[in-house]
């Protein structure tokens, strides 16, 4: 246990990140950091990056004039592979493309003296429209798209009476109806891990934009100790 006069620098890094981003997700993040993971800033991690696959700009994002940054949290193994990628923020069209790319990134191993360590880092992936895409740029493209998208729908019956210990989560449902990513929003932190594992097994009817299925966010409630085959209760989209 670190001395009170010399606090664990990784834990301090986690606390700084929680001040910056806040919310229930940071409570879980702090626990992971305190367990022994280094947190690298963007520049330090970029110096270790040896194979970076650029995400493809989704055609439907271009058509709808969607641009901006996606912030993603990466957990990198001792061998330099991305073990986990989690969307911190970003439009769902761009978020799916980002996840598909960054999960294949390769880093040089992080050496701390004679020890090789896993690490966490945050990356901002930028999508910018150019040329003719900017000629008729509407003033509020994301809001315009929101009104046109039919949100995802869960498959199966929702539990009638979720437990007080239920975890409310925001999930990114992919264009094929699978959960691509999840984020705890509310509930006991001790239930986050089980809630993640449970919601990853659920199936959804994907969101639709016209005749196209598209990735989209959905808020769900995961009952405490829910069997994985149960469906969640939805309480709103983005």
CATH class of the largest domain: Alpha Beta
Helix content: 25-40%
Radius of gyration (Å): 19 Å
Overall morphology: flat
How many strands?
17
- As for the number of domains, it is 2
Q: How many strands, which pairing sense, and closed or not: the largest β-sheet?
A: 4 strands, mixed
The chain-level structural class is alpha+beta
Average pLDDT level: 82
How many H/I helical runs?
7
Structure description:
This protein has helices at 9-21, 24-34, 42-48, 59-63, 92-102, 141-148, 192-199, and strands spanning 38-40, 49-51, 68-76, 82-89, 106-107, 110-112, 115-117, 119-127, 149-150, 153-154, 167-173, 179-186, 204-205, 207-209, 212-214, 216-222, 233-237. It is flat. The termini are far apart. The protein is an alpha+beta fold. The strands form six sheets. Strands 1-8-3-4 form a four-stranded mixed beta sheet, sandwiched between helices. Strands 12-11-16-17 form a four-stranded antiparallel beta sheet.
């Amino acid at each position: 246990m670190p001395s009170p006069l010399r606090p664990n620098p990784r834990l301090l890094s986690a606390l700084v990140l929680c001040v910056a981003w806040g919310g229930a997700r940071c409570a879980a993040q702090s626990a992971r950091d305190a367990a022994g993971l280094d947190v690298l800033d963007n520049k330090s991690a970029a110096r270790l990056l040896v194979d970076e696959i650029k995400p493809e700009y989704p055609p439907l994002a271009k058509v709808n004039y969607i641009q901006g940054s996606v912030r993603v949290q990466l957990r990198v193994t001792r061998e330099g592979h991305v073990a986990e990628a989690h969307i911190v923020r970003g439009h769902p069209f761009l978020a799916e493309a980002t996840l598909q790319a960054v999960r294949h990134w390769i880093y040089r191993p992080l050496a701390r003296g004679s020890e090789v360590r896993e690490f966490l880092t945050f990356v901002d992936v930028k999508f910018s429209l150019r040329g003719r895409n900017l000629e008729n740029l509407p003033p509020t493209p994301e809001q315009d798209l929101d009104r046109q998208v039919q949100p995802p729908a869960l498959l199966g019956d929702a539990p009638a009476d979720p437990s007080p210990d239920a975890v409310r989560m925001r999930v990114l449902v992919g264009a094929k109806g699978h959960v691509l990513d999840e984020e705890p929003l509310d509930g006991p932190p001790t239930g986050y891990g089980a809630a993640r594992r449970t919601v990853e097994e659920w199936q959804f009817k994907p969101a639709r934009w016209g005749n196209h299925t598209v990735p989209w966010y959905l808020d769900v409630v995961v009952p405490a100790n829910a069997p994985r085959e149960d469906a969640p209760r939805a309480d709103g989209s983005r």
